[in-house]
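agent> call fold_tool(seq_1)
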Amino acid sequence: MGALAETRERTLALVRGLDDEALHRPLDPIMSPLVWDLGHIAAYEDLWCVHRLAGEPLLREDLADVYDAFETPRAARSDADILRYDEALEYMEAVRERTLAVMDEPHDFHELVLRHELQHTETMRQALFLGGLPGGEAEDLPAFPDVLDWVEVPGGPFAMGAAGDGFAYDNERPRHDRDVAAFRITRTPITNATFLSFVEGGGYERREWWSDEGWAWKEEYDITHPLRWAGGDDRPVQHVSWYEADAFARSLGARLPTEEEWEKASAALEGVGLVWEWTSSEFDGYPGFRAYPYPQYSEVFFGRGYRVLRGGSWAASPRVATRTFRNWDLPQRRQIFAGIRLVREG
């Protein structure tokens, strides 16, 4: 119960003090209105903790489709008949009372709902970043040396994925053996200062460093630097797309890690959890994958060009962003708090 209350406070703190326009309009075309997120959080909790787990009817069945992420995609949410801010707060409170009333023994669905809300607080921070509002920027991130310090990782097998005990998302399972060749990986995330060398060295002009898709994207949108970039300090670079990360890696004769390499090396790395780290891997299920508790969490995104990110960010909860957690996004996306770590052959 304490975790539920703490998470809810974390959510509501993001929207306190925002005016009506900021709450109800999309702060960017690719994001939902913040007030939609609030209603969605409540509807999801009611569905899984009260309806599916306890067998009670939904509190507001009329809102089920409005707050279903697939029935009402992002492009339609600003025009949907969603709750106003005060109504959304009342809905959240009423659902929480229902949850607490039927919460007896701990269940996976309680953890699912808790982590779902924590993930939405990060999504809301992305919207705040795009809207230039408080809560969208890290108050501070540690600085790292502006040099590439490589960690040697020996080849060999390791067990990849979440263990069988405790909560994990379906795409983290089943745990299985992978054999990885020896490689070297940068000990820390790439800094703004290191990325500045790429920018000043013609990184956005050198065609040979870009994939065909990345170059076409860069040219179409006239991309010349990371999104809303402040320049070259010694903190981790953020808001780079997979295309930019891939081009940067090529410029240094390196590459992005596979997610197998990232997970095997993760315990030896510094700065994990400050920015999401792009990998070269496309999002798909592990061998023996089984959807749980519903296919729409992971399975519908498999094989559609999404790239895996690992490690977490300053805006993510460590409860969600474990060493086996798999985030994913499209290769052109830059709203995510994503940076870069490099690999070279061993």
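agent> call fold_tool(seq_2)
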Amino acid sequence: MSSACHSVGDMARAAAKPGWACTECGWTTAKWVGRCGECQAWGSVSEVGAPKLKQIPVSAPSAKAVPIGRVEANEARRALTGVGELDRVLGGGLVPGVVVLLAGEPGVGKSTLLLEVAARWAKRGHRTLYVTGEESAAQVRLRAGRTDALADELYLAAESDLGTVLGHVEEVGPSLMVVDSIQTIGTAEAEGSPGGVSQVREVTAGLVRVAKRRGMAVIIVGHVTKDGNIAGPRLLEHLVDVVLSFDGDRHSGFRMVRGVKNRFGPADEVGCFELAEHGIVEVTDPSGLFTTERGEATAGTCVTVTLEGQRPLLAEVQALVGPINGQHPSRVTHGVDRSRVQMILAVLQRHGGVRLHDRDVYVSTVGGARLTDPAADLAIAMAVASASRNAVVQPDTVALGELGLAGDLRRVPGIGRRVAEAHRLGFHAALVPQAADVEDVDDFRLYRSGRIHRTLEWLGEGRPLTVVR
């Protein structure tokens, strides 16, 4: 009897023993582990007490629920920031009470862009508060003078405490606040140092509450990890309304703002900028940055049209094929995925009759463009075949199509927009898959083919396969 009582007591103590849970996704486990088994985050599993169900008392609502048709839509009317490319990504401007997270690598130009946004917002007569936790007020003032970002309605505060930041909000009464950055702001209401999981979560929740209560737009700067992901808990992206990614090549001035999440507009738009000595400049027509001046036809080059979100951009692919310099052939790429290029080379040799197994192949893009769109497969294949055979792709022709392992050409989405962009920029022909669904365009020729070896027959001769007017 006594042993049975001890057994029951041990079971009760085991049931009351606290467990472990992930602070980012809520995954639970009976013992501590270094990595969450659900979201795969490191160091996010912490000890928690046994879950208890509590009865939540019912309280009277402060405002009655109304039919959705009676809600005033004017209260959520957008306001333009004055930066057209950013407005494009936001879906037409800032909605009152919106919270935007702008994430990017160090040195990419996040602070410069948002200081420009704050200045243009202030120059339109809207009171703006710029909070910096990474720089002193004097340092921000120097950059504002260099980039012509001075305005009477732009207020500047160098703070790292959330309570003090909220005090500035009550005193200034801005319609837009920029926080640079969320990892430098802390609060005594949460454990840990600024930038930690608990701190970032609590500070962001506090900014979201004040933004919704006052109808004030808030733009938060966020850091990224070495893997390119947004630093901090994943809950951060759920708390905000809009998530934007700001990226670009460190050795090039070209920058892109990509929409990752947008509750008030499309989440696949792209804005283009160029980082110059006097600040950041909008690039409304970036296609020319990724192509060379079209003149005399040159072997080893081909132009394609890639889609960045909903935006068509021209990009030029260059290839060089030469004798092997070692025991094994070299495959060097820049701006394109190396494994995808290797697949295209294998298809060219197997189904296109292009000998490449004993030759070095170099493939690169122009202007630092990064091609991840499968529609660039055909342009890569044509550039490599052109370099191998010393034949040319006509300079007024673009190549659009995904290349399959069986040597077939597959249609790609948005081909109508791609063709229209090429035509707008002065091109007169396009190599497209046989099944491409595209409408006729005046003064523009479509060369259709379903197999890569048929397309290569056109190379160097300019002879159409199937001409569609």
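agent> summarizing second result for user.
Residues 419 and 430 are 7 Å apart (CA to CA). Residues 16-49 form one domain.
agent> awaiting next instruction.
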